[in-house]
Amino acid sequence: MWICEDVFKEKYCFNNLITEYNYHIPDFSEHSRYLEHINTLPEKDNPLIFGLNGNADLTYRLKESGEMINVLVDTQPKDSGGGSGRSREDEVKDKLNNELIKLLPPDFNEIEIDEKLKTLRGPKSLSDTGKAIPLNVFLFQELQRFQKVLDIVRGTMTDMVLAIDGSIIMTPLLVDCIDSISDFRVPKVFQYDPTGVEISWLTPSLAGWLKGLIDRGH
Predict the structure, then answer these.
(1) How far apart are CA 52 and CA 54, in angstroms?
(2) DSSP annotation string for 129-176
(3) CA 43 to CA 59: how far, in whole Å?
(4) Who's near 200: CB < 8 A, 6+ residues apart?
(5) 3-state class of 94 per DSSP?
(6) 24 with 8: CB under 8 angstroms?
(7) Is 61 exposed, middle or buried, given 0-12, 13-18 or 19+ CB atoms closer than 10 A?
(8) Where are the domains of the chain?
(9) Is the entire prediction scored with pTM above 0.85?
(10) CA 32 to CA 181: how far, in whole Å?
């Protein structure tokens, strides 16, 4: 990005949009002057100097804070139960059966959606209906994506209950999900696929994420 002939010009500045500090190549004859210049560099560089959006630093700081909080939560003792003397797994099971699973919106019927889209019109300037309208195609794809997330959530919650009961094997993935539910965090499988690609919205708390799921379902 900065490899060009202009960098050799006198008083060339790498940034024109940043006001708090001007990045330039110093031209001194003494070693000490270079050290002094290095000491004037800011501790935190503005993302604009790297060609990034100004919000990149905010995104990085939020991610860093979230990871730190996750580490702190993960290092807390997991074996002890609540004040009732019950195990953590039993408390998670009751929470799933009595609250969380019941909050999930019903599944979408793809056949019914397809039939409704056939009669759904687009902008007034267009006479086409159904999937001939790009916006309708986008709506159909978003509903498919939402249903995929809903299947993952419902299936994972059901598997957690079955694993706690001993009906199925308690896999490492289910253990992580149980830990997350116990700590009121969003299980990673709800937000990312096995390759790490984001598949849903990102929120720091389980309550906020479920609210987003319910709102989208309505």
Answers:
(1) 6
(2) BGGGSHHHHHHHHHHHHHHHHHHHHHHHHHHHHHHHHTSS---HHHHH
(3) 18
(4) 149, 190, 191, 209, 213
(5) helix
(6) no
(7) exposed
(8) 5-50, 87-217
(9) no
(10) 56
Reading the chain (218 residues) residue by residue, the pLDDT tens digits are 567 777 777 777 777 666 677 777 888 889 999 899 889 888 877 787 777 777 888 888 877 887 787 777 777 665 555 555 678 899 999 999 999 999 999 998 888 888 888 877 777 777 777 777 888 888 888 999 999 999 999 999 999 999 999 999 999 999 999 989 988 889 999 999 988 888 998 887 899 999 999 998 88
Tokens 């990034």 belong to residue: 52
Whether the Cβ atoms of residue 163 and residue 169 lie closer than 8 Å to each other: yes
Query: What residue type is assigned to position 149 of the chain?
Result: V
Local structure of 121: helix, strand or coil:
strand
192 bridge partner residues = 198
Q: What is the DSSP string of 37-57?
A: HHHHS-SS--GGGGT--TTHH
Which DSSP letter does residue 179 get? H
